[in-house]
Amino acid sequence: MKRFLFILTLLLVTTAMLAAPLKVAFVFVAPIGDGGWSFMHNQGRLYLEKVFGSDIVTDFIENVPEGAEAESVFRGYAQRGYDIVFGTSFGYMDSMVKVSKSFPKTTFMHCSGYQVTDNLGTYFGRMYEPRFLSGLVAGAMTKTNIIGYVAAFPIPEVIRGINAFAMGVQYVNPQAKVHVVWSNTWFDPAREKEAAVSLLDIGADVIAQHQDSPAPQQAAQDRGVYSIGYNSDMSAFAPKAFLAAPVWNWGPYYEKVVRSVMEGTWTNAQYWGGIKDGTVDIVLSDLVPSGVAKLVMSMRIAIIKGDMHPFVGPIYDQAGNLKYAEGEIPSDGDLLSMDWFINNVVGKIQ
């Protein structure tokens, strides 16, 4: 009789556990209405709600600064019994590492980081692939051969993106230069617009960016020149300027993570997906001439098939040093730690 009651209790507990919805939290560094980075991560959260319905419960906090405040937010979600916590900014890394060690039953996922623990994994996308494609567009469309790039922070993620973009520019237009100005922001429209204006003032007729707001594109439109967006299709914000944008699509990857936790197969693997996986891609506007669009799409297919890589030698740095020989491709480790500019970039890594 006791054995029967034990088995019955175990079954009831197991059933209750299976019936309880998985609790999934997201922590955003900017407002979800930014139209960019946080907006696209939140689209991934909404995608989860559509896919899983009542099997999950999601929550989010926006505008969370990197540092002590972020640590408190992560700790709070773990204390409230959330099963998965996604942190979506590079600067959350140290906080997530620390909190994950205190809450081993919670699964933590950090976007763009490189440190893992037993219950903390990392994920990111090979944004350098569509960055290269957007550089093809910029290089083909510039008339002054001065292309402006409003850069966020001098970290490998941003530097890698600038170099990939510059590789695309160089591929179609060896005479053009990519001029970099740092804003040291992820989301500060006024400051980012000011940085774009400084590039327009030196003759830039295409403005690219790494931040989350459409402000640099709006500055370009105000001057009657072109822009390259980032994160999402921001054409509605600057329809007369917007040429293209490298974009994110997080939904399918978030679904994969949630299913792995549900099924007990999650591991702390470090994910880095590309165009082939659907994590990143490029959007083009009707302002891009058909010939340029065909080139971009053919190169996109070549990347998917593995027939070409955005970073293939010869590649020289700003000082003229050969970094990668003819046909040589940097390793993932080299790309993830990139801290130098290629030879058609004008500006310093501050």
TrEMBL record:
Domain ABC transporter substrate-binding protein PnrA-like: 23-292
Record flagged with keyword Transcription regulation: no
Pfam families for the chain: Bmp
Keywords: Signal
Any one of the GO CC terms: plasma membrane
Signal peptide: 1-19
Keyword flag Phosphoprotein: no
Highest taxon of source: Bacteria
PANTHER family tied to this protein: ABC TRANSPORTER SUBSTRATE-BINDING PROTEIN
Name of this protein: Purine-binding protein BAB2_0673
Organism name: Mesotoga infera
